[in-house]
Amino acid sequence: MIPAADSALRPARRRLGSGAVIIARRNPLTPAVTFMLAFDAGSAFDPPSHPGLAAFTARMIDRGTADLSADDLAEEIEGRGASVEVTCNRQSLIVACTCLVDDFETLLTLVARMAHAPAFSLDQIELRRHETLTRLAQDRENTGTLATARFFERLYGERHPYAHAPRGTSDAIETLTRADLFAFHQARVRPALLTAAVVGDLDERAACDALEAALGGWPDADAPDRILPPVSPPALRDLSVIRVPGKAQADIAYGFLGPGRLDSGYYAFWVMNTVLGQFGMGGRLGENIRERQGMAYYAYSSYDAHRIPGPLLVRAGVDPGNVERTIAAIDLEVTRIATHGITPEERADAVRYLAGSIPRLLETNAGIAQFLISLEQFGLGDDFDQRLPALLSSVTVDEASAAASALDPARAVVAIAGP
Amino acid sequence: MPSPERRLSQLDNGLTVIIQPSHASRLISVWAWYRVGSGDERAGQTGISHWVEHMNFKGTARLSREEMTGIVERHGGFWNGYTWVDQTTYVSTAHRDALDDLLLLESERMSACRYDADECESERTVIISELQGCENDPDQVLETEVTATAMKVHPYRHPTIGWRGDLETMTRDDLVGHYSRYYAPDNAAVVIAGDVDPDDAVSHVANAFGRIRPSAVNAPPRTAEPEQPGERRVSVERPGTVGYLKLAHHAPAFAHDDFPPMLVLDAVLTGAKGLNLWCSFRPQSAQRRSRLYRALVEQSLASGVQGACLPTRDAFLYYISMTAAEGVPVEAVEQAASEAIADLIRQGTTVDEVERARRQLHARMVFEGDSVTNIAHQAGYFHTLGALEAYDALPARLARVTADDVDRVAGAYLRASNRTIGMLHPASPAAPLRLRGPAGALPLRAPVPAVS
Questions:
Q1: Chain A contact for B363, CB < 8 A?
Q2: Interface test with B, best of A33, A60, A78, A322 (most B CBs within 10 A)
Q3: What ipTM was predicted for this assembly?
Q4: How confident is the model over B196-215, as pLDDT tens digits?
Q5: Rounded to whole angstroms, what are the CA distances from B405 to B259, B261, B265, B290?
Q6: Contact A364 B74 (CB under 8 A)
Q7: Is the pLDDT of residue B438 over 50?
Q8: Chain A to chain B Cβ contacts (< 8 Å)
Q9: DSSP string over B144-200
Q10: pTM above 0.90?
Q11: What's the whole-number mean pLDDT along residues B176-205?
């Protein structure tokens, strides 16, 4: 028996004339607030000529506005002990702020201004360009980053918007201009593509009023969403190796495409992946590779679904002499689950774990805000946290096993980075 | 910030029980803390506390290896453990209905772990794999070298994961001996935060742990680190293109009167961090008004700078870590950092800087209380240091810090003769890995999240 969530989140929610959706939820645990502005402006929307433009735009958001210098902004934020982080993944550019509740309205006004009217000053562009090039150099020495980046590139195909890493390439970063930043900002960082969530020790209606006031001077018209192209995964096994001298360990990234977030098979695939690479010490993969063979500190699989098919990604870090044995073990476990499916006990454990995890996901202000934004982005409804346990419980052993049957080592993408 | 509702008691067998009610959700977080870490290890057995922690997920008299994690996850719970210099700890966070199962797990872990010979051998290679992952990270390699150079005699000099030679030679008997010696109720604390009634929770803890006998743990003495007679240097070369610089200054223990002004000094130099090593795994945003950010990153000499003033039982190190910007020699970063630090010592801090730092620290400590997991961690962590009262008093201690206090500790702890400078120079890919300085290698950033 899976218990329903103790109470539905049911946040306050408004859609503004500009198209922005604003959401607020009270959480009285601490006198603090987290708010997030999530724009549909991730690296999947980089122009093909400039991989990394979205992420670079994110790195420039907090570096000055039309009327406040970068130093002034930093003083306003850091002087209050607040934290502002701007991140960029493949789908979204997210401005997140955590502050004391007494500073909420001041910081909200400031952050909205940052998102609306960044200065993109030339000196800050050069500073951030230099930093980003160093980070890209560090990425080229990181076996985990290299293996994962190669995996995405081969899984989605070089021309697909999901193929490149959000941070982009050194060549693109070296050549991007202030005009490129303004063009991307105008196209994607706009209210019609914004979901904003506020969570903390404040009244929900007052929080919505504050959000509406802070974003009210930012008009917009409907922005057509860019349709991402379909994905054609490799028909044959695709294995590649990246040599990184001087490293003690090799990293393996191995996997397939799974369903999209709104596909009918999503929940069955989620349950199946929990059995394969999550439950306990990394599911069946961790049991084989770490617990029985002692080959890796970490061996697990993750599944991250978006509007398009998302990756099931197996990761393991192993001694360079154990790479072939580890890949053979992954092949074996994938074949086993694809051929024989999962057991009723495994299905019950996975469903109880996933359903029971919901209160933990919704404990912190940041966790609640992220959850509310995902509900909005995928149209899941305000009572989704209460409906989710039943959705998971409805997954049968046969459905989860059928989800596994699509996994075929002969079609796996495998990337290895190591000495 | 002591909570008026927090309940601290002790069972007859010496087990400390700390209950911190919080009813914002129906979650509970249960932590078991042991006063043993890499600071209690002797030569030949470095890394044993961390290895024992791994073994304590491998099955008990009543619970199989699978059940030790399954018992938590079937409640939708989260589990983990870590080992660091002064402590080993285990955590489970789940729905309040899981309380008895989580306490059963921890009572079994305290008294009935199996230590099957095959499992000990299998875990040896898992830990060596973990160590290899650390070796892949140039910053961690440098940290290990710098720490072992700065600390000559105190056991904090050893990496928590251990030196490779010890990991290759320790035996099952060593592991069992360490477990038997330190895993006892009079060397432990159980902390519960969340949706519980304090009296009821204490009675559940007594039911689960009351039968376990105390062992009068007698940890070996730790040799005090003598005053450093002059500046030390260590250099590492590795294939790559990015250089790293790390400064380590001998620094006061958490309970020392100089620790609060050191926290403020760190905030002035690199920006405020909180004091929760558990949630400090979250990325910290850059503090752009801090002195070293302005001197290094804004001048395009470094791509990042971080300070770490860590709460420990004994005096340890205050680290400042920098990543050289691409094409910038590490020596140029060192020169600029040294000049910025010398300026601070010479000219002192301003009242505005100290005020800003205190506001930042206050906010970070509020943010750290955002979950029952974090609340329970802080109570257990500082109790294990023997410094829970000092932690409760920290806001008041910070409020008393003046600019003069900060200037005094800057002069005392940041002077050249008190520091070790570590440089990692990128070498051409053809060059073999070469370490210069103390023998050995191998890192562990603190604390070590061990199992997940």
A1: yes
A2: A78
A3: 0.93
A4: 999 999 999 999 999 999 99
A5: 11, 6, 9, 18
A6: no
A7: no
A8: 196
A9: HHHHHHH-SSSGGGS-TT--HHHHHH--HHHHHHHHHHH-SGGGEEEEEEES--HHH
A10: yes
A11: 97
